[in-house]
C-alpha cells in the first residue's frame, strides 16, 4: 500500500518540509543523497518525490494527486522516464551505470524530465562510482538523481559533494512497530522489538532469533518468581536466567526486557494500556499492576537502571543479579 504525502510527513517531517520548499520554489537539486537506517522511508519518499516532479495534477504545487496516469504508473513501477538501479548480486556494477547513461542520453519518452534512483548507492564498485561521478559532474538540467544509502560513510566524498544530502531520522518505537507489522512481524511481537532497538534490520533479525524469544519467556518467569517466596526468584535466577544470559551484552539485553516489563506495569497504573509492549501478557500484567504502587514500581525501575550501570562497571554478573532480585522483591526497598 502506497502511503500519501501526509502519512509520510508524520514519520519524516523535516525531510518532507525540505522537499516541499524545494518543489514550491522550483529549486530541486539535480542530485540527492537520502541517508539513514533501513525502514526510515528513503525509498518510499524517493518514489513520492518522483510523483511530485511528474504529476499532472499537483495540489498546492507539490502534493501528487495519486490518480493521474503518471502517478499510477510510478506506483506500479512502469513509468518509462524513471529508472531504478539496484545491486546486481552484491554490488552495483559499472555496466549498470553505463546503461543508465546511455538511456539518459536519449530524449525523455513522455517529457524532458528523467529521474533515476540508486538503491544501496554505497554498494557501487569503484568503477561504477567513478562512472556515476562523471554523470553527476555534467548534469542535464531535466535530470534528477536520487541515491539511497544506509552507509553514508561508504560513499565517495566526491559524490557526496555533488549531492544534497538529506538525513532520515530513526523511527519512533510506535512508527517502528507499524513498519515491522507491515513487514510481516506479528502485532504482539512488534512493540517489544521496536523498544529494544531502533535499527530495523536488527529488529527483523531478533524476531527470528530463538534466543531472544526464550529471553522474553525467562524474563516473565523471573518476574512471576519475584511475586512469590523470597527464595523462589533466586532459584529461578540460578535455574534459567544464569544459563540463558551468559555474556555481558546478553545480560544487558535481559535487563532491558525486564525494564520494559516494569514500565508496562507503570503504564497500566497510569491508564496508558495502549503503550504496553508485552501485549501477549496484558491480562497477567493488569492483575499484577493492581498489587503494587506507582512509587514502588518507580523504585524498581530505578534499581534496574542502576544494575545496568553496575554491569558496565564490570561487577560480577551473578552477584549483580542476586542483589537486583533482592531489591525487586515485593515489600523491600531499594538501597
Tell me the layout of helices and strands:
Elements: H1 5-11, H2 13-24, E1 31-35, H3 42-54, H4 69-75, E2 82-85, H5 94-104, E3 114-118, H6 126-137, E4 143-149, H7 157-160, E5 164-167, H8 173-182, H9 190-196, H10 200-207, H11 210-226, H12 230-244, H13 248-269, H14 282-289, H15 294-312, H16 317-328
Parallel strand pairs: 1-4, 1-5, 2-3, 3-4
Helix pairs in contact: 1-2, 3-4, 5-6, 8-9, 9-10, 11-12, 11-13, 12-16, 13-14, 13-15, 15-16
Question: How is this structure best described in words?
Answer:
The protein has 335 residues and is α/β, with parallel strands linked by helices. The chain folds into 2 domains: 5-169, Rossmann fold (3-Layer(aba) Sandwich); 209-328, Zinc Finger, Delta Prime, domain 3, CATH 1.20.272. Helices cover 55% and strands 7% of the residues. The chain has a 5-stranded parallel β-sheet, with helices on both faces. It has 16 helices and 5 strands. The mean pLDDT is 90. The protein has helices at residues 5-11, 13-24, 42-54, 69-75, 94-104, 126-137, 157-160, 173-182, 190-196, 200-207, 210-226, 230-244, 248-269, 282-289, 294-312, 317-328, and strands spanning 31-35, 82-85, 114-118, 143-149, 164-167.
Amino acid at each position: 500500500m502506497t502511503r500519501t504525502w501526509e502519512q509520510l510527513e508524520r514519520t519524516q517531517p523535516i525531510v518532507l518540509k525540505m522537499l516541499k520548499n524545494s518543489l514550491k520554489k522550483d529549486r530541486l537539486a539535480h542530485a540527492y543523497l537520502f541517508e539513514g537506517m533501513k525502514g526510515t522511508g528513503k525509498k518510499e519518499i524517493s518514489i513520492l518525490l518522483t510523483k511530485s516532479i511528474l504529476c499532472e495534477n499537483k495540489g498546492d504545487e507539490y502534493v501528487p494527486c495519486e490518480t493521474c496516469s503518471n502517478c499510477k504508473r510510478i506506483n506500479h513501477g512502469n513509468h518509462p522516464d524513471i529508472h531504478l538501479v539496484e545491486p546486481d548480486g552484491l554490488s552495483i556494477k559499472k555496466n549498470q551505470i553505463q546503461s543508465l547513461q546511455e538511456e539518459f542520453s536519449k530524449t525523455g519518452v513522455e517529457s524532458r524530465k528523467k529521474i533515476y534512483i540508486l538503491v544501496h548507492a554505497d554498494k557501487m564498485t569503484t568503477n561504477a562510482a567513478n562512472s556515476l561521478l562523471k554523470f553527476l559532474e555534467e548534469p542535464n538540467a531535466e535530470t534528477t538523481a536520487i541515491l539511497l544509502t544506509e552507509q553514508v560513510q561508504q560513499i565517495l566524498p566526491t559524490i557526496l559533494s555533488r549531492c544534497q544530502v538529506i538525513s532520515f531520522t530513526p523511527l519512533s518505537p510506535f512508527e517502528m512497530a507499524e513498519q515491522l507489522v507491515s513487514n510481516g512481524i506479528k502485532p504482539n511481537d512488534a512493540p517489544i522489538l521496536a523498544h529494544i532497538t531502533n535499527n530495523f534490520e536488527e529488529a527483523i533479525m531478533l524476531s527470528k532469533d530463538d534466543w531472544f524469544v526464550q529471553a522474553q519467556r525467562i524474563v516473565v518467569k523471573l518476574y512471576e518468581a519475584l511475586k512469590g517466596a523470597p527464595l523462589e526468584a533466586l532459584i529461578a535466577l540460578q535455574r534459567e536466567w544464569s544459563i540463558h544470559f551468559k555474556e555481558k551484552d546478553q545480560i544487558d539485553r535481559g535487563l532491558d526486557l525486564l525494564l520494559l516489563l516494569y514500565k508496562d506495569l507503570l503504564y497500566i497504573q497510569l491508564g496508558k494500556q495502549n503503550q504496553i509492549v508485552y501485549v501477549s501478557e496484558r491480562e497477567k500484567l493488569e492483575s499484577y499492576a493492581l498489587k503494587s504502587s506507582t512509587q514502588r514500581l518507580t523504585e524498581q525501575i530505578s534499581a534496574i537502571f542502576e544494575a545496568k550501570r553496575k554491569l558496565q562497571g564490570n561487577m560480577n554478573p551473578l552477584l549483580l543479579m542476586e542483589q537486583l532480585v533482592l531489591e525487586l522483591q515485593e515489600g523491600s526497598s531499594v538501597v
